[in-house]
Structures are given as structure tokens and as C-alpha cells.
Amino acid sequence: MERLVNLSWHSSYECGNALIDDQHRGLFCDANKLLDAILCGHSVNDVTALIDALIDAVVQHFQDEEIIFTAAGYPEALEHAAIHRELVEQAANLANRFHGGNLALGDLFHFLARDLVARHMLGADREFFGYLRPKP
User: Fold this and answer.
1) Where are the alpha helices (DSSP H) in the chain?
2) CA angle centred on 12, ends 11 and 13, rounded to 5°
3) Which CATH number goes with the domain that contains 46?
4) Whole-model pTM?
């Protein structure tokens, strides 16, 4: 069951910054650990710990990423940081609803894995990649 669905990392997702690439790979891995725990029927406490760890990792990643793309001169840095704040706020709100029994686990996972990790990293993040690559 645990490999029925999986977020797969591909080298084409890399931006060329070692820290960002390592963190992106780690977030894919964390999302897969959460999915595995859900599909394997792990305890609510185990799943909750994985949810909280994933959100914490995302928060740290966003902070690190903002420092890097701002230093690289990305002109949309403030707008991208605002997207990060909105995503973290939404993740926290959904996690709180889940912890309170007012949100299905599948809905929370859908947001965390698809919207927060995969879509943001493979969509919005790609806009600043060109600013991270060395200029010829």
C-alpha cells in the first residue's frame, strides 16, 4: 500500500542552490512519510507528529528560501514572501481544524502534499530559479 501513491523527486526540479534543493527533496520525502503513515494506518498521534514536522520544515524552508532569493536580487521577493505567509497560515488553520476533529485527514494531506509542497515548489518557486544561477 505504501508505494501506491508517491511524490517523486526529479532532478529537473532543482534550482541549483544546494540548500533549497536539499530542502525541496526533504519536503517531498516528508510528504511521502506522511502519506505512508496514513495508508498504513499509523496512530493519530504518529500522523499528527508527521503533520506538525512537515509544517515546521516548510516554515524553516520558506525562511531560508526568502533570504536566498532576496540576496539574489529576485524582484518579486516581497510578493513571493507574501505567498509563503498565506500558505503557512492556511496550513496552520487546516492543521488546527484537523487537530480539533473538524477536518478530514485526507483534506489536510491533499493541501500539504499537493498545494504546499508539490504545486508551490514546481510552480511559483520556478519563477526565481533564474536569479539563483550564476551569471556567465
Assistant:
1) 18-39, 44-71, 77-99, 105-109, 120-122, 129-132
2) 85
3) 1.20.120.50
4) 0.89
